Amino acid sequence: MRITRTKINGVVNPLGFSFEKIIAAWNVEDTKAVSLKNGVLEVSADGDFSQILYKKESAELDQTGEVIDIELSPCTRYFWRVTVAGDNGETATSDIQWFETGKMEEPWEGKWIAAPEGEKCHPVFSKKLSLKDKPVSARLYVSCLGVFEAYLDGEKVGNEILTPYINDYETGMQIIAFDVTEQIKADSNLSIQVAKGWYMSNFGLEGGHNFGDRMAAIAELQVTYADGSNEVIGTDSSWKVSKNDVTDSGIYYGEDLDRTAGINEIGNAVEIETGKKLLDRYSIPVVVKEVLEAKDIIHTPAGETVVDFGQNHAGIMEIDADFPAGTKLTVSCGEILVKGNFFNENYREARSQFVYVSDGRKETVHPRFTFFGYRYLKIEGWPESIELTTDKIRSKVLYSDMERTGFIETSNAKINRLYENCIWGQKSNFLDMPTDCPQRNERLGWTGDAQVFSQTASYNMDTRAFYKKFLRDLALDAKRHDGGVASFLPNTAGNLAGVGSVWSDVSTIIPETLYNTYGSAADIEEHYEMMKGWVEYMHRNDMEHGDNGTFSLPFQFGDWLGLDGITEKSFKGGTNDDYLACVYYYRSTMITARMAELLGKKEDAEGYAVLAAKVKKAILHEYFTPSGRLSCDTQAAYVVALAFDIFVDRNKLIEQFEDRLKRDCYQIKCGFVGAPLLCITLAKIDRMDLAYHFLFNEGFPGWLYSVDLGATTIWERWNSVMPDGTLCKDGMNSLNHYSYGTIVQFMYEYIGGIRPATPGFKKAVIAPKPSMRFRFFKTEMTTAAGKYVSDWKIAEDGIFTLKVEVPFNAEATVTLPRFSRDRLCVDGLVDSEIKDDGTVTLTAGSYEISYMPSRDYRCVYGPETRLGELAGDEEIMKLLEKELPAAYGMIKGGDKENANRTLSELPFLFFLGINPDAAKPVIEKICNTMRW
Question: Contact, 926 vs 879, CB < 8 A?
Fold first, then answer.
């Protein structure tokens, strides 16, 4: 038995963080024990656990989240551990873990410092230390206006990039704490380099925005000596300031590093007032998570030298430089080659370059105060006398330090690539906040994208701490706007972001996602006021417009990038904006009512439940006929109604939805609202055949269209790249947008079949829905409760096998697809435990179940099969040509409408020359045809 994944608030050993609540979580692995007999959680003031501050012992100790209730002091380390005893007598105690507070409300001795007025440079602030001895403990607390790196004796402090990250700049700046005990000496040189970052590099829409016009820093070095005495060295006017050889930088701009300029002292720093509040950190670290080697050096038809990393991503390039003095190297970023040549016009006004001027030194160099999105690098200025080889350049992949928790592996190479594209989309856009893209002059925390992708993201990685930060920034901004939740972050003082349905509903949907995924109500409590504030914002709007249960704004994003808009180039689809607004008004109000009840806020819970019922009634009155027909006849309209259980007659709504899909020739028409929920909704209404159709469609629009064109990340548009390899020219166009990666949620929940039955996965559902399109499909998901596995395969003889793993102290209700007792074999359970309907409840352990399905999966065709699906099957086409030539002609004719008729329709197509008596036996033969 081992205790693993020990975290506080989703972070391993957090240093200097803000702790509104302290929530400990862990997993138990490598044990034969099934359930918890007893658990002990302890917190101590010392590592020997001789000064116990908190202790909880219980047979109900909750590994998904136990709140530690102690009073905290500033700048103090606390130690914790957990001991678990299983029902079989096994025991384990975790390694000793810790968490350390930041400055909290402790007064600062350090002052804000800047370069003298009028000095336009990237400042380096420095101090020669003169400590009385080598400290036994040393902490460095730093913040800045911009981004910074700290150095001791020329060596970087810590491994984080772009600190103190993105902030709610109207509120204040985060403090980043470092343990420098091992690195510091009594006479060390301490320096802090500051660059523009998000704070002042024209960041955002409408040409960009600066949140300030002067870079500054504040720091404190707190040391403790062996004799128990303490000393604090803070920034003040005694610190020196120099001009950095980083001559310019910016998030969109890139970075200019001129080694010939040198680092030149200006004089003393000046103390300034910034008006910024200093906040203990709540961003998790952004670090180098992996390194990509260059795959190829390409010499393009245009004569360019281009490095290909084989993978679109976010990061910084690293170059082994050994050049003559004065060499100027310009590195430009791009996502795609067009006609074999370098291309980055879709970056718009983002320069996205690293410019390096060598002074002749041999060094390994990389940008330090920006990041880029790219697969390709165009290299200009590389000396002709030095060969550029793949070993001289690499890429450091940057994203927030999240644990990977979800894994999918299948027998289909294209689906595997699609899955990896989703993972890389998340890696590329989860850099301190969930952004829309990592490359062009945007890179904003668009809340609509974040909302639709949140569950997928939380299956892929442990997002508990990452989203906590994003939601906190959203809440700080919403407080200034009467509860209105911004459409993107960071917002401007003038509220450029505004509000919008679906986008602003991030404020309720992500907290619900976090609760469902991680299971801790204490996690949600911090976000409740924002949730409530957004619902009240909508309710006030409702009351201003007659108190009819509606929400109306002058502008809504609607079903963004839907394909059923007014014109082919419309930014949004044809689904009525007010309808979508009302649906999400209802959805957010329902979620808030549920969370209020969970948090014991009875009055709120009752009030919001009543309001939600009122809004739903208004939707049914305005948009549904009395008999149950939905008047908004679009894919997205049906998807959200079915997803959120808004209907008069569910069966009638499903019929309408199916009819809409048929009239759309089973092509995706919906955008950011509908497409993320499309396949999940089809699975919920038992139309997995259609969900599989959309998943495997290789034409435009479809998920595999991009895979076939070589995509290595998810695109912003279904047709971001045209079939000829050129970019679609319809305005904004990113090749690294994660939103449509939500198809992976469907893969986890319905093909793999793993989803939570109770919050935090203490109980799970494992109900895979296989197809012969896969020979095998393996899903692993490490949850708050531990690791679940659903691993199924279909053998050549048709036998279906499912392997299941359930973690310690958890259980899963397994539904075996097309279950029968024919050739039933089990391992880990008794076959009589399986009910006739194929359900069985499994406790912790590993299991294997195999049987011959009640309907052979090798019979890949059925009554619902569309004629177009038969076109590539040579044997079936020969059968039709011989025995049902009219149907053969319908397929070969290439008409979309005919291609989407099903086998079950053929007997009724007498007007097309099909004899019903002739059709039925042919259909039976097709349905009994086996494929392997």
Answer: yes
- Phi, psi at 780, each rounded to 5°: -125, 135
Place of tokens 């209802």: 586
Give SS3 for 619.
helix
Is 513 within 8 Å of 489 (Cβ atoms)? no
Residue 517's closest CA among 814, 782, 790, 747? 782
Task: Please list, residue by residue across 745-764, b when 16 or more beta carbons sit within 10 angstroms of its beta carbon and e when fewer do.
Answer: bbbbbbbbbbbbeebbbbbb
Phi, psi torsion values for 75, nearest 5 degrees: 50, 45
**In whole numbers, what is the pLDDT of the chain averaged over residues?**
97
Confidence category of residue 730, pLDDT binned at 50, 70, 90: low
Q: Is 711 helix (H, G, I), strand (E, B) or coil?
A: coil
3-state secondary structure 750-765: HHCCEEECCHHHCEEE
CB atoms within 10 A of CB 588: 29
Q: How far apart are CA 70 and CA 874, in angstroms?
A: 71
The helix (run of H) or strand (run of E) holding residue 800 is strand 800-815
Peptide bond into 490 cis (omega under 30): yes
H helices, E strands: number in the chain: 18, 44
Torsion sign, CA atoms 6, 10, 16, 18: negative
CA–CA distance, 581 with 587 (Å, rounded to integer): 10
Describe the crossing of helices 413-429 and 447-460 by its angle, rounded to 10 degrees: 120
The residues, any chain, with a CB within 8 Å of residue 222's CB and separated by 6 or more, are 75, 138, 139, 140, 141, 230, 231, 232
- b/e string for 492-529 if b means 16 or more Cβ within 10 A? beeeebbbbbbbbbbbbbbbbbbbbbbbbebbbbebbe
Rounded to the nearest 10 degrees, the angle between the axes of helix 506-518 and helix 528-544 is 150
Locate 451 and state its tokens: 């909302």
Can you read off the two tokens belonging to residue 289?
A: 């998570």
Taking the alpha carbons of 623, 624, 630, 631 in that order, is the dihedral positive or negative? negative
Phi-psi region of 6 (alpha: psi -120 to 50; beta: other; left: phi over 0): beta
What average pLDDT does this structure show over 43-48? 97
How far, in Å, are 123, 234, 574 from residue 141 at the CA level? 18, 9, 52
Cα separation, 626 vs 646, whole angstroms: 14
End-to-end Cα separation, the chain, in angstroms = 42
CA distance 452 to 740: 9
**Which residue has 């060596």 as its token pair?**
155
Cβ-contact 111, 219 below 8 angstroms: no
β-pair partners for 400 = 286
Rounded to 5°, angle at Cα 345 from 344 and 349:
105
Would you state the pLDDT for residue 79? 98
State the DSSP code for 695: H
875 sits in which H/E element: helix 874-883
For residue 81, the cross-strand partners are: 42
- The DSSP result for 246-272, as a single string, is EEEEETTTEEEEETTT--EEEEE-EE-
What's the pLDDT tens digit per position in 655-714?
A: 999 999 999 999 999 999 999 999 999 999 999 999 999 999 999 999 999 999 999 999
- With beta carbons less than 8 A apart as the criterion, state whether 309 and 294 touch: yes
99: enclosing H helix or E strand? strand 97-101
Single pTM value for the model: 0.97
Query: Buried (b) or exposed (e) across 92-128, using 16+ Cβ within 10 A?
Result: bebeebbbbbbbeeeebebbbbbbeeeeebbbbbbbe
Give residues with Cβ within 8 angstroms of 633, minimum separation 6. 656, 660
What values do phi and psi take at 676, rounded to 5? -60, -25
Using CA of residue 760, residue 763, residue 767, residue 768, what is the dihedral sign? Answer: positive
* Exposed/middle/buried for residue 355 (C-beta within 10 Å: 0-12, 13-18, 19+): buried
27 DSSP β-pair partners: 4
Reading the block at residue 60, the tokens are: 């109900």
Q: pLDDT, tens digit, for every residue of 467-511?
A: 999 999 999 999 999 999 999 999 987 888 899 999 999 999 999
